[in-house]
Design brief:
With 128 residues, this protein is an alpha+beta fold. The chain contains two helices and four strands, in the order E-H-E-E-E-H.
């Protein structure tokens, strides 16, 4: 990466374990895509006073060569799994990995084909 990875924690204290997990995920993305210019990860920590509805979220902003920005902004709905910060981070990076794979496939010209065209003619007799 051209610029160092930036990790921010909003609403709470930084976590070394989450920072290491995020660093590992970013290294995986760089191996997958190979050309990240910048990456900023924001982990939103729920307010301690409102833990009843406190769900974690992780937002990722990546910049690719050519000034291409990719944002993964996932706001959890009523899903209790997001009460675990590791789940929120893993979910955001799962989405980022999928988006980078799709972008790389498009750049390579790989296009999904639903069905191959089969040439059939009802007017021709079958060949022996």
């Amino acid at each position: 990466m051209e610029t160092p990875l930036k990790i921010s924690f909003q609403g709470g204290d930084a976590s070394d374990a989450l920072s290491q997990m995020i660093t590992g995920h970013v290294e995986t993305l760089e191996q997958l895509y190979g050309r990240l210019t910048a990456c900023h990860v924001v982990v939103k920590i729920p307010d301690k006073h409102h833990r009843t509805s406190g769900l974690f979220s992780a937002n990722i902003h990546m910049t690719l060569p050519g000034g291409i920005d990719i944002n993964i902004d996932q706001t959890p709905q009523a899903d209790d799994r997001f009460s675990n910060p590791q789940f929120a981070v893993n979910d955001a990076f799962r989405r980022a990995k999928r988006l980078l794979k799709e972008r790389a496939q498009k750049q390579r010209g790989d296009v999904k084909k639903l069905h191959e065209r089969i040439d059939r003619s009802l007017d021709r007799p079958p060949e022996p």
